[in-house]
Amino acid sequence: MRTFPSSQNFTAPRSPTPLDHPTPTRLGQPSAWFFKRLFKGLFWAAAAWGAGPLNAQVPAPQRFANDMAERTRACTACHGEQGRAGPDGYYPRLAGKPAGYLHNQLRNFAQGRRHYDLMARLVDPLSDAYLGEMAQYFAHLQLPYPTPTASNAITPERLAKGQQLVTQGDATRGLPACTQCHGVRLTGVQPNVPGLLGLPLDYLNAQLGAWQTAQRRAHAPDCMAEIVQRMPAQDLIAVSSWLARQPLPTDTRPADRAPAGPALPEALRCGSAPELSARAAKPPNGGKP
Q: Which of 41, 76, 156, 234 is the most exposed place for a label (fewest CB within 10 A)?
């Protein structure tokens, strides 16, 4: 026979409270119970993180500086902080180079005369005027140069040959001295001729080789392409090895004008630096670079 609990041992079920069973609401609509729990959770979360009262003003996030230093971070990621040069020997210095030269190189990448896919992609969406602003920014950065570190194996005789080609040229092959265009101090000439000192050996070798193989070109007539075709590889290495070993002069700025001397022959005219072909035999400042 079934037995039932006596009334003395029977406990009536507790009436549900609002927190046990939230008040029914329409489908998809939160109940008052939900909002009460949500508010309580947010309050304690704010207190735990030291956020203070929930109605306290949250400071606006700091904006990036609206200047060219910030906009050129994509450049300095490879070319070093402030364009001082990359650490691997292949990304050259940008700081302090003539603005006309830097602008021309950006144009060369944009227009396919120089081939490096990363650079082409970076400059492709930018206007020519903006490329000019970037060039001006880097040109005005006057920063100290590092100590030369070239240590490749080369004989003293080959280094002497490199020095001769840089400072005197070779008339028998119709080669002008590097100083005839790049300045007596080899720090470049305003506004379009770059300096040759303070550049990594690997970069110098890579660029001279690129001209020989037509991977690098400039505005026609391309004087550098013609010059390197007249030089065997061992002479190019001698030139780059000597240049990469030279300390920088006290004044590293590009010269205001090319040194005194005859204009370049017709075969060696430079489309990217027409002022070299039109210079007077003696500049107004008496020949001072």
A: 156
